[in-house]
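dumping this here so i dont lose it again. seq + smiles for coenzyme A
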Amino acid sequence: MSKGAKMPKPKPKRSVLCVVQARTGSSRLPGKVLQDLGGVSMLEFMLLRLRGVQADHLVVATSALERDDPIEMIARSCGIGVVRGSEQDVLSRFIVALDQYPCETIVRLTADCPLTDPAIVNAAIALHHERGAQYTSNVLPRSFPKGLDIEVCDSTALRTAAFLAVDPAEREHVTPFLYRRPEHYVLANLRSDLDAGQERWTVDTPEDLEHVRQIVSSVGRDASWTEILAKIGRTVAQPGADELRLRAATEADSSLLLQWRNDPDAVRWSGNGRAIETAEHDQWFASVLENPGHRLRIGEVDGRPVGFVRVDVHGGVGTVSVAVAPDQRGRGYGRDLLTATLEDVQADCQVVTLAAIIHRENEASLRAFRSVGFVPTIDPTKLANQPHLNLVTRAA
Ligand SMILES: CC(C)(COP(=O)(O)OP(=O)(O)OC[C@H]1O[C@@H](n2cnc3c(N)ncnc32)[C@H](O)[C@@H]1OP(=O)(O)O)[C@@H](O)C(=O)NCCC(=O)NCCS
């Protein structure tokens, strides 16, 4: 390096607060976080697992209700700080945590995920900082088992959410205000190549608790999630031979998507009525593939791709585009793709309403959307000068 050349300044490490949200008042399995798991309470089990998380502070956030006193006792006996606040307005509880432990980045974990792996938490924090994101999770799309859920937020963005959010779901679930608005916030997602998003390792029901107890008795407390998966294998049934399954798109799907998009019918019914150039497609594909604001899914039957669905999210409204491979049309896959998309968006809180803009002469598309409950929102006879549009919506 030449004399006097400046060394790049190392990025200052950002301070991190990791919050485990816990309460005893669960409707399906009351007091679940106090239940035994591996000889200790489920909460203590999780806190012991989390010792490897690289955060400046690890705290438990519970409600101010008396019935949640045992949660405070367990956390304190583990040497972990506790903050207490509203039971229902959990977003405000997180702000209490930030007020007591001011940090630039805040991680949200929930105590019904006792198998949370500190290595994934650290990877999500690292990705969040590397991307300069304001919200990062590992569930949009989900590729880790349900029960390893992690969310990382920029503290300023979360404070804005706490100030502005009025929808009760945005207050109860803490973070939807951010990830429903990809147009305002930079979102990122941590993905695993193992594609294990169908597996269920969370504890919501007595059956879940039994399942997680069996996992723990077989692998012990500190096994990594990949060691657990290797040991117990996949336990969720694979779809039947003719059943359509949605999976998140990968880089390898790029040329197939372009091919489907440029088929003459798809071009005819598309918004701009023209074929897409390869360079334009590549640029678009790279921008949406890892962006949680664009849910890009491939429909597969028996491992074969038969079509795709795309849901572009803006302010909680998801605009749906769908196409079936030309040689697979008219077999019900269009309807199946939309049905699976409804399940996909119902699995999280990102999309409140779904919308689609359909050419008024695109009978197959109109029928497919209607058959899964979409309804026209404008009277087509009033659109005489806009032959293209037929807006249909339904609640997600
Ligand atoms: C629109 C599209 C996704 C529908 O998928 P599909 O698999 O062909 O449709 P399905 O077999 O699921 O049938 C859905 C409905 O459309 C009807 N349909 C299917 N093909 C049709 C056709 N060629 N003409 C009229 N109706 C048709 C079916 O009878 C069914 O109606 P029903 O629910 O009243 O019984 C598919 O045709 C396609 O990819 N088209 C090109 C791209 C496109 O137009 N995308 C939509 C942009 S909004």
